[in-house]
């Protein structure tokens, strides 16, 4: 580097000043302007890339948000209608009421175009939006009739005035119906043309099942794709930009270009066919789709939003593709194409302007440098000649006059001043000698004045030392007292007694040795040494703090190394520190002997301390080891971040967190979970400034274990009770036992029984024929096992049909439907179980090798059901309906099911029954009964 500098200096000596001034500055200006222009262009290009990314993200987010709004509404409507049908709020047989309900929903959901329902018999009801104020109601009766009728709708959604009658329509063959039936849940259909006008739509459909799990029909709501087209056309993107949505199959869903078609008529069929994006009439759409196919293979491979550049037809485009999907079958991709030229227009204009500015700047800088160099060089040449004249004529008289003739004062201000300085220099040299003599005289006077001022300052300093509370000594390297500057009466020794004494003359040897060591250390290091020490005084000890500083003097032959010893009495401070330390000791004893874990942090969330229990739980060797640490030093990163976030919130809001129960991050010694009750309290000073937080953690693991054990016992008890009683009755019984009972006639329970009236219940009695003779021939154990197998099958059937087993009496079995929760199909459920019981008996006979048969009786009517008594509770039924059901069983025939006329009226439409005629029933007289044969 030094060699290079010398070479440059040699070359510079040979160059004229004009070249040195012009060339470097001209090159520097050109380079600065050129680099600035280049950086401006590059920064503009980067900004365009970021702008394109941001624009694509904003457009994609807006499209995704709007599509989510469009796609959520149809499924919300389906869910409302399915629940209304399930709860009986909508009657699927009442087509006009369904149409009116759908019309009302269209008013609340303006983006949904049609809402409809189709059933398994071919019936169909639709409410549709033909225009903003034009609605239609369409009804198909079903039952093999494939016609449906189109009506207008009045202001209340009621069908009025038949408009048209169409034929050849079966909803069960439509895509929306088939997709819901196959999915057995909420789903999207394929995009399909509307039956009446061919408009493309997608349907959100959901199946409806009856209580037996059979498909009743499908509810659906249509979203017309032209709505999405209109939304994309109104998006504010570049003039020649393009947005389109495609399925993973490649078929178009919607596009922002009004010239883009979504369907076309197939040759020979007349049915509209979907158009693939790769076959679109829009060239840019075809090119974009081809690029995506080359890059990803197919759109289904695009896992997340991507941004890339497309070059087509000599132009560059920013192209982004974003997948949109849901769990009901939507798998679309949103493609956004923005031309780079429309974003780069200003950048290119700036580039041209930057180049023009560079050229102009270079020319102007060259001209200005030439003019400036001429202006600067001429005065400097004159000054050079003048300096040579000074050296030639300095020894002659009258050289000032000659110098004035050589130098012309003109040009640049600095050069004018330099010329004047040259003209004045000679006269000043002659005048300087006479001024020196005058100056010497003045200096002597000033020295005398300074000496007097110094003496006054020393007197003032002595007075200041006298008023100071510190003790100030001057000592040499051996600890000898040279001067004592304090007159404080509290001193242990008088001033005149200390001078010329050493530390060993004043203090005991070990103390004196330590003082001398500190003095020599200060002299050796030339740094101030601080020491604290105590001295006895009147039977007590007083503490002092001393600063020992070397006295820096100029180098003289007899200079003695000395220090200044400044001591201050700190007894009061030491006593306060001892009291504080004692309080800290007591506080530490308290903290270390409480069962809770305690820690505290400062306002920056650094640990300041903890008690022994917390340190042990954190696996630290001692409470002092936590000082200066943070949560990052003790916990995983994610957990530490969460804890610090909570602590900052406590400090900012000044609100404590109390009794937060959580599982400790670190398990116990045996890997067990440890539960903590966490309390965190903010700490503030009197001015409200944050000092930190204190945390108190209580180990509640044993309490949690006890609570869990109690909960498990409760669950076992509940399970046992539910095995004996129906769930609603068990809940009532528990609530009754938990109440405080007053005026009780019995011990532990009141007189009130748990009972309820049911207006329509169906009762079944079943008795195994021939079981009594069989019991005399079989061992008791085998007999009980056989009866258990049979009744276990009956229990499973009761559970399958959601019926309530009442009891068993010997070889008789009693079950009821429609209680304790009422239901409208109790007769059908009992009938199904009765038929299945007959099949179960045949299965038992096949593997035991016997010919058992069963006699069943069924009756429907009002009953009273409940729990009575004090102990060994059981759920039982009372009423005439129960007695008649029992008579139906006892008066029946083996292997057959006898039902009353009331039950017959509930079953006649869906079951095969045979009239038995009138029979005599004990307690009732003549009754007309029927045999239940099979399901229709």
Automatic annotation (TrEMBL):
It is a multi-pass membrane protein. Residues 527-582, 656-712 form the PAC domain. Residues 762-889 form the Guanylate cyclase domain. The chain crosses the membrane at residues 20-41. SMART domains: CYCc (SM00044), HAMP (SM00304), PAC (SM00086), PAS (SM00091). GO terms for biological process: cAMP biosynthetic process; phosphorelay signal transduction system. It comes from the Bacteria. Residues 426-460 form a coiled coil. Its EC number is 4.6.1.1. Residues 374-434 form the HAMP domain. Belongs to the adenylyl cyclase class-4/guanylyl cyclase family. PANTHER family: GUANYLATE CYCLASE (PTHR11920:SF335), GUANYLYL CYCLASE (PTHR11920). Homodimer. Can also exist as monomer. This is Adenylate cyclase. It comes from Zarconia navalis LEGE 11467.
